[in-house]
Design goal:
2 domains, seven-stranded mixed β-sheet, globular, binds flavin-adenine dinucleotide, FAD binding, monooxygenase activity, FAD-bd, FAD-dep_Monooxygenase_BioMet, oxidoreductase
């Protein structure tokens, strides 16, 4: 094989999935994660059918389902919670598994870390890459812990604000603010909640996602109110989140009253990025949010990061020269990720301006179809 030794930079969903997938095809893998604590924020994630399909190829889908909660479809409500606007059932993606799954980020992280460990990836935390030099022999990397090693391929999975992207591709293409912000908090699950409930508001949407038999998260994606700052201090987040939920009725209004602890609220501006193809220069390839970070409207960012790892390992396993491996990866990944980033952005644009000629349900459907196309 042309790719026998790989460095993965970043131990998030994409980096860990790539490490597991590459180990499964016999590649030696070092993974570095800059955060010594390897902290994961405490909310949850939707795993759409294509995420379960990719995790199934890694042998991890069942673990996620056991530790998560099935999501069988979606119910859309008016903002005041008095009218059900529509209800859909999601089609099954993997026989024997639910169509979608909700899981806490911590549990998903633990599943991926255990899989990377048992597959034999060498993981170092609290470490970053300080220098990357390339020649015909390989990529030669210096690390913040003083080590130096050479690799056939360096995989940058260091997220939306990728340092490796800046080092290798320059800073012309950066994550951009979409105009919306996301609020999330974990709460006790509404009894019987087994599908996404989404409430359509004037400036965005709010909703619930089941995560475990006793847990769900409430999320809100909204346009920043006129005159309000985008960045907010941690102190006061709970009361600010309650204020932002004022337009909603029904179950959102009931659960709004449970938002009391600033430390439990996860708030962040929504940003996205689509790095033009190709996502590789020489022996450095970017995957996950570093290359194609999407707004969360279709629940696809983590799913695409997992798919990247699976597809990369399949291309490496062909044994073709590295240039063809990387071209094969791009051929399978670019259009799909582009459709997801751009489709999600269009839904967000419509949420911010309902006069735009965009049908958000039709776009969401198109994105779901693109995501479920064969890998
Ligand atoms: C509000 C919101 C809701 C979302 N909901 C969903 C959802 O329901 N379903 C879904 O599939 N996706 C969802 N996503 C998207 C998903 O979270 C991301 O797409 C996914 O986490 C990307 O994984 P990644 O591994 O590429 O990057 P990250 O998760 O950002 O991981 C990057 C890792 O690299 C490390 N790192 C950074 N710099 C360095 C460095 N220099 N050296 C070493 N390590 C470094 C970081 O510490 C981190 O551990 C959502 C995103 C948001 C913002």
């Amino acid at each position: 094989m042309s790719v026998r030794r790989v460095l993965v930079v970043g131990g998030g969903i994409g980096g860990l999935s790539a490490a597991v997938a590459l180990r499964r095809v016999g590649v030696e893998v070092d993974l570095i994660e800059k955060d010594a604590e390897w902290s994961v924020y405490g909310v949850g994630i939707i795993q759409p059918g294509n995420a379960l399909r990719a995790l199934d190829r890694l042998g991890l889908a069942e673990d996620c389902v056991v530790q998560g909660h099935p999501i069988v479809g979606m119910r859309r409500w008016s903002a005041d919670g008095t009218t059900v606007l529509g209800e859909t059932d999601f089609p099954p993606a993997v026989p024997g598994l639910p169509p979608n799954n909700g899981i806490t980020r911590r549990r998903l992280h633990d599943i991926l870390v255990a899989a990377a460990d048992s597959a034999g990836a060498h993981v170092r935390t609290g470490v970053s890459a300080t220098a990357v030099e390339q020649d015909s022999e390989g990529a030669h990397v210096g690390f913040s812990d003083g080590q130096h090693h050479s690799y056939d391929l360096v995989v940058g999975a260091d997220g939306l604000y990728s340092r490796l992207r800046e080092q290798i591709f320059g800073d012309d293409v950066k994550a951009k603010f979409t105009g919306q912000v996301a609020w999330r908090i974990n709460l006790p699950r509404i009894p019987g909640l087994d599908r996404l409930w989404m409430y359509r508001g004037a400036r965005g949407s709010a909703g619930f996602v089941p995560l475990a038999h006793d847990l769900m998260y409430m999320l809100t994606i909204e346009k920043v109110p006129d005159g309000a700052p985008v960045r907010l201090p941690r102190e006061g987040l709970a009361s600010e989140y309650r204020n932002r939920l004022a337009e909603y009725g029904g179950a959102v209004a009931e659960h709004r009253e449970l938002v009391r602890d600033d430390a439990e609220v996860v708030y962040r501006p929504v940003e996205n990025i689509l790095l033009p193809a190709p996502w590789h220069r020489g022996r450095v390839l970017l995957i996950g949010d570093a290359a194609h970070g999407t707004s969360p409207h279709c629940g696809q960012g983590g799913a695409q990061a997992i798919e990247d790892g699976v597809v990369l390992a399949e291309e490496v396993a062909t044994g073709l020269p590295i240039e063809q491996v990387l071209d094969g990866f791009m051929n399978r990944r670019f259009d799909r990720c582009k459709a997801i980033v751009e489709g999600s952005e269009r839904i967000g644009s419509w949420e911010q301006d309902h006069t735009l000629d965009i049908d958000p349900d039709a776009v969401a459907y198109e994105v779901a179809v693109a995501a479920m196309a064969p890998l």
